[in-house]
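note to self — DONT lose this again. spent like an hour looking for the file last time. sequence + predicted structure for the chain T wanted, 108 res
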Amino acid sequence: MEPVPTHDNSTPDGRVECWSARIRGRVQGVGYRDACVQAARAVGVTGWVRNRKDGWVEVQLQGSVDQLLAMRCWLGDGPPLAEVRNIAWQPAEAEMTPAAAFERRPTA
């Protein structure tokens, strides 16, 4: 996947969608977050990923519907050592100050 040259991740009418997901399975200790950062940056979405103490990985994504659908596919597979068993999706409120890029956050 080639990196998108710009972070303008709005839809043609200027809308930016925001989705939140919690991923369960063998997703901690297998490079899931770092691979997620790389995939998100390649697709051009903004937002963040972090481990949760309860064993889930949490992701917030902002971008066009096409970008978010591409990430939805990637999150279901993850990196080679991951085993995704469950993804809980929900619409999310966009952060007051949209992220300039996609970042890895500390465990919550």
